[in-house]
Amino acid sequence: MNNSVVQTFPLGFPWQTQDPFLFCVYHLDHYPKGNGELGPDPKLLEGRSLGNDFRIKDGWRMYHGTTIPGFPYHPHRGFETITIVNKGYCDHSDSLGAAGRFGEGDVQWMTAGRGVQHSEMFPLLNDDKENPLELFQIWLNLPKADKFVDPHFKMLWHEDIPVIKEINATVKVIAGNYRGNQANDPAPNSWAANNENEVAVWNIHIDSETEFILPKASTEVSRTLYFYEGDEIEIEGKKIKPNFGVVLDGAQETTIQVGQKQAHFLILQGKPIGEPVAKYGPFVMNNDAEIQQAMDEYRTTQFGGWPWPYPDNVHEKEKGRFAKYPDGDLVEK
Questions:
Q1: What fold, for 1-13+163-275?
Q2: For domain 21-160+298-307, is the CATH number 3.40.30.80?
Q3: What does the pLDDT look like over 176-206, one tens digit per residue?
Q4: 255 Cβ partners below 8 Å, 6+ apart?
Q5: In the chain, count of helices (H) and strands (E)?
Q6: What is the pLDDT of residues 245-293, one digit of tens each?
Q7: Which of 215, 264, 216, 213 is nearest to 236 (CA)?
Q8: Model pTM?
């Protein structure tokens, strides 16, 4: 009998990750109707710690937003962000002049590289109904050799992302290869761009009262299963409740038995980079001297400055899903 379960742990905020991943957070906010200006009714903001509102109140949070929920401009260096928006929308703006509105299944892949500023705001587009948001943000490390590559911004539109429908499950293949089904190419300098690193980001939904077999990897990888919604499941005789993570031995298949509700999972997998990690807020380098250098350069250059009118920049309410790239190329969906 397989014994692929290495460890279980409760899911906090953020979620615990393994090399090559640095960070993973799950946002589930049941935002109310919009006020016509992409935010909630100002009366609903009373009693909140605006600018630092991370406590769930009435089912939602403003994060660092004051009138519109989200994260106004902030810098990054030395890693990548993968932002998966299953429900709702995210408005992106950055110091390269790139911008976008994505959601309802879209994924943004951004390489911060040598340094970029961006904002991530969650506009409440619907004034006649609620605006639920479900979003994962994953930080994938860059090896030392690639920490100073040029920043890169890429959209993976939901129409183009492989979604594998099995008898009792669906698997959204955001990165990697699932049973011969290859994801779209990631950003070009990503650790995930080399197939030998077996980086996988899969969002898996398994029907109730069924069994699902997670295939083994072909190389030595770290693998973490995040059970974020559902009923109790069982893996190889071990019962696991929702809001728990499971560190798995990727060299073995894993059989998941699902309880009375459909179960929802995120899988993060990859060959470890195996280099020292120094982190300070939005900067991830290999040592403390490089962190200090990043802070000094940001103070001096602002990583190119901020070309947008507001720190919490959002796009016109009427705009649909789109991506405007630094070279001026515009894609509208």
A1: Jelly Rolls (2.60.120)
A2: no
A3: 999 999 999 999 999 999 999 999 999 999 9
A4: 2, 211, 212, 213, 214, 235, 236
A5: 1, 26
A6: 999 999 999 999 999 999 999 999 999 999 999 999 999 999 999 999 9
A7: 213
A8: 0.97
